[in-house]
Amino acid sequence: MSVEKLFFDLVELGLEEYEENEFVFNTIAEVQEIFHNSENCTCYRRSNTKNFHPCFEIIGFKPFFERLIHLKGLDKKEKDLFIKTQLMIGNLSSNKGDQKVYYKYQFNGLIKICQSIFMKLCGIGKRTLENLQDHYKQYGLDERIHGNTGRAPSLESKIKITNEIATSVKNFLNNYALDCGLPSPMRSRKDSDVFIYLPTDATYTSVYEEYKRHYIKEIDNNVISRVSFCRLWKQLMPHFKFQPLATDMCDTCTDFKAQLKSKANENNYEEIRGKYTEHQQLAKIERDLYTKNIMKSINFNNVANILYDWAQNVSIPHLPQQPGAMYFKSGYNVNIFGVCRTDGGENIQLNYLVGDDEFPQGVSKGSNTTLNLVYHALNKLARVGKEKLQITCDNCGAQNKNNLSLWFWSWLIMKGWYKEICVNFMIPGHTKFLCDGYFGNIKQKYKYAKINTIENIEDIVNNSAKANHALLFKKEPDWCWYDFKSYLEGNFQALPQIMKYHHFRFNNASENIGKVYVSEKAGGEEICFQLLKNNSNFEPNRQIGILPLEPLSKEKKEYLYKKVRIHVEDPYKDVHFSKP
């Protein structure tokens, strides 16, 4: 009997910063189960007042969820220390002269909660809590050590796990991740590595069999067991996981799965299954090209490889414990655009921080703005000594896959920046790539930070990961907003049915200037199309007009001053929230 997968609308719940996966959904369901039954709160059961609220309602759904998911991410030692610290804070001396110790429980030191909710919040039972209380009374905050620690195990492994074997497992998984992994926005709790997801059709057994085959072929016939392999995997590569079904986020995949589950389609099952397999194979071909392009940029000095995307914007002000009123207010938004370069095996991601009042007039986050930031990044990262430029981005028509972008790449070829430019758009729903991982690093730091100015966000970005670097508009003298649209549109023509193509190639051969070669899939048949108008006397090196900034409206300034300024700390109130 199949078990129905959980699904929740994270935006509706105010949890849009979390990834849609089974772990998050299960935690949401756990919190909802607690909130749906007031009897879970013992202080509520004891109250005779009709208007008395259970203590979990006073905490609120989102703070309760965030604390629970944070504690789930701790290992045993970290979780024990957290609980014992709470016991130390809430330790009450007995007035009865006996040895019994009483405790009060609080959320963030402010909200009194009952023991029952404290246990549910920590994910422990009565016996575990009592054991921790007893250990705290005897040893304080010292670590709990199991009685069997230091003893030899009763059963020994048939093959002793050596450093060589452990290294072979780690190296194999690293290479396997490079070939098959999908970077995720979420991050491992112990380090800054992004989660790398395997496709949904992979299993521990299938990966182990692959490892076993390679090990026997290259090293030795004596291979560790599947259990030992999985244990080493979890110890050495905790951020390398299987992709939950809910994280595909591909409408086509979801539709195929629904059709395959429906009894109404039993007669067409094989046909549907075939189409689903074909779709997955197409996604795999594109993923293989993505990996191949990264490897090219690592192995060839004259090849530049970039990826770019917009992240979810962040807001100022922000506090780790955000005042309730701020959830209903709109602060000063900072938009983040990332350009990641993979050349030489050392990833660098430039993260452009653009405030509400720093966008060009009339175009906001459209294609002209996107191309300006890419143009700036290419000058900094991927121009000197490069002959070929490879680009990967998603299928967003408004920002990435549009005619202005094609004209822009053709223009760079005409300027002599590169001999060849290849632009690759990933299959919708299968677009997880490196930028998402580095955005995830930033999001995790932002979540627990105090933010009063855009410079605070700059610090967060720079400290979130080695590869992440922040750029501010006011600190970059060569960052301006060129009017590429007015400059290019009169000299180029549109490509018909642009959205059906996924690959675009530009070449500097004299017969190819102003042309683009398009194909629907990686390695597919190319079709040539003339972008530059035949009667055009286009001069690629003439001066480009610059767009002025779009200031905040008077209404927005007054709103920020009257409604949001009160939540900003005193020294910074006039930075973004001055009186209009």
What's the arrangement of secondary structure elements?
Blueprint: H1 22-35, H2 42-46, H3 55-59, H4 61-72, H5 76-89, E1 91-92, E2 102-103, E3 105-107, E4 111-113, H6 115-122, H7 126-139, H8 163-180, E5 182-187, E6 194-198, H9 204-218, H10 226-236, E7 240-242, H11 251-261, H12 269-299, E8 303-310, E9 314-316, E10 332-341, E11 348-355, H13 367-381, E12 388-393, H14 403-415, E13 420-425, H15 434-447, H16 454-464, E14 468-472, H17 484-488, E15 503-507, E16 515-519, E17 527-530, H18 554-564, H19 573-576
Parallel strand pairs: 6-7, 8-12, 11-14, 12-13
Antiparallel strand pairs: 1-2, 3-4, 5-6, 8-10, 9-10, 10-11, 13-15, 15-16, 16-17
Helix pairs in contact: 1-4, 5-7, 8-10, 11-12, 15-16
Core attributes:
three-stranded mixed beta sheet; 580 residues; 19 helices; ten-stranded mixed beta sheet; alpha+beta; 17 strands; 40% helix
From the alpha carbons, calculate the radius of gyration and give it in angstroms: 28 Å
Strand content: 5-15%
Number of domains: 3
Termini gap:
64 Å
List the total number of helices. Answer: 19
Mean pLDDT: 82
- Strand runs, count: 17
Helical amount: 25-40%
What global shape is seen? globular
How does the major sheet shape up? 10 strands, mixed
Low-confidence stretches: 149-157, 183-194
Structural class: alpha+beta
What does this structure look like?
This protein is α+β, with helices and mostly antiparallel strands and 580 residues long. It has three domains: 22-139, no CATH class; 163-247, no CATH class; 305-530, no CATH class. Helices cover 40% and strands 14% of the residues. The chain has helices at 22-35, 42-46, 55-59, 61-72, 76-89, 115-122, 126-139, 163-180, 204-218, 226-236, 251-261, 269-299, 367-381, 403-415, 434-447, 454-464, 484-488, 554-564, 573-576; strands at residues 91-92, 102-103, 105-107, 111-113, 182-187, 194-198, 240-242, 303-310, 314-316, 332-341, 348-355, 388-393, 420-425, 468-472, 503-507, 515-519, 527-530. Strands 8, 9, 10, 11, 12, 13, 14, 15, 16 and 17 form a ten-stranded mixed sheet that branches. Strands 5-6-7 form a three-stranded mixed sheet. α1 (22-35) packs across α4 and α15 packs across α16 (454-464). It is globular and about 95 Å long.
